[in-house]
Structure formats: structure tokens, C-alpha cells
Request: fold
Amino acid sequence: MILRRAFCLSTIALSLLAASGCRRPTDTNGLTHVSLQTDWYPQPEHGGFYTAQLKGYYKQEGLDVEIIPGGPYISGDPLVASGKIQFAMNSSDHILEAIANAHEPLLAVGATMQHDPQGILLHANSPIRTWTDLNGHTIAVKPGSTWWEFLVHKFHLTNVHEVPATFSVANFIQDPSYIQQGFLTSEPYFAGKGGAPARMLLNRDAGYDPYRVFYTSTVYAKQHPDIVAKFVRASIRGWKEYLRDPAATNAEIEKLNPAMSADWTDYSYKTLKSGNFITGDDASGVQIGQFDPARWQTTAQQLRDLGVIQQPLDPTSGYTTQFLK
Reply:
């Protein structure tokens, strides 16, 4: 069984080598070089950035953007905080936790997704219909996941047995009662291909709704606001174009990540688009990249209520709308 967003080890090694030892100079042919560390291997969830690169939107802004693939053991936080790279991807709740608990000088500058497609993967015929129905069952989940802590507290899941997530649907396919975490853009596809039709309970429908974001450091944003503005502007333009016509970008993603089949890429793209994960509830596209301060406030309060953040935190320290105007 193929692991979720699997990638061959040799390709990972080459990516890491490129990220660590093959940097291009700061200025290349009159373009300012910046790096974006993604949160996983190349996939449609990064489509806007690859579109901006392929279509020349970054170059039109005077930028030479290097997109560095991520993976399960790569964190952009220390790289951005130290200035080794300029941008990275994560979620808005993670940004707030990193600031409050690790004192990382991170600053979210735009949203890649208005909603996170993460949640609980269930068999299509499972009797579980609501989160409270999870009591009495075993759930495969990544230990320490904040979204899971939220579900446990909100729905009083005091009788749930947790086991570590394997990031594979192999067990799910074999066991008709198996329950695990997943992403709507991925696990249901593989479950269905394996003969186990699935559905999901999405975190956003439970009231836990952080953004997926791209971020820089507070120092870099202060020292180079013009570069940040250019990167944000071109990236949002890339996301709008990707939603309009994904063909060239998806072909590039499949080339960069051989684990991505055309069928899987198409499934992920259509799920992102039909679920309004990138556009938000207004499918016209005006929300692409944008932040709502009220949602950041809600997330910060949820983290505080869970005890994930021990001290009060002003959520505006974790994001800015300066470059979204």
C-alpha cells in the first residue's frame, strides 16, 4: 500500500541535498532569490505556488523563487526564524503555538487554504455519524495533535482508545471497523481505490477551523516588506490561475513527485475546488489568500481554552494583512 503522499527515498535525499547545499546567489540575473519550504512533497495543495513559478508571475515581480519540497521530518520554523529560507507553509494554529511556546518569530502573510481538509476517516457504511459516536472506538491519530485535543474536549470523548497514525490506509482497507485521521484530498481516494469506500467528519464542521498559511519571519517582513508583498501578490495570483486551469501545474507536480498519478492529482484538485477549501465560502475568489481577524481570535482562544497556550496571546502577533491589500 502506498503511504499518503509517498515519495521515493532517493528523491527525498536529493531534495534535502538541494535544500541544504545548492543555494543560488541572493541576486540572479537581476532577480531577488527567495525560498519557499513547502509542508509536504509536491501536490495540488501547493498548486498556486507552482503555477506562479511556471507562469512567470514571480519573475514578473522581480523574484527568483525556489520551491523546496517538504516531508514528514522537515520543519520550516527554524529555517525561517534563522533566515536560512524566507517562506514556509503550515497552519494558523501551529503559528500561534510556535510563537507562544517556542518564541519563534513567525508571521503568517497569506492563506493557502481558507479551510483545512483534515478530519476523521470512516468507512462509508460506518454507524458513526457524529463526533460523539466516536466514544467506545479506537482511533488512529498522530499523538499530540491539537485538533484532536479539541475534538476530545468538545465532544467529551472520554472512552476513546488512541493508537498512533501510520499515514497509510492499509489497516483501514483491511479492517471494516478501522477509524483514522486523514485529509479529504488524499485518504478517501486511496481507500476507495482499495475497495473501501470512505467518508469523513471534517474538523471545520466541528468548529475547529484554522487556516493553512504561508509565513515568513517578523524580522524579514520588517526588513524586506517590498519582497514579501511581491511574493504574496504573485502567489495569490498563482492560486487564482491554478483554480481556473490546473493542467500545466498538475503535469509539473506529477513530474516532480512520481508518486502522484494523474488520477490522484485530478481527485485532489477537484476536492480542493468543490469543497471551497482555497476560496472559502465565496467561490468568486475574493477570499483567496485573505485573513479574517475574528477567526484568528477564535483559534487563539481555543488554544488557550485547551491549555495548549499557557499565557494570553494577542493573535495579531502571528499574522498580518499588510500584504493582502
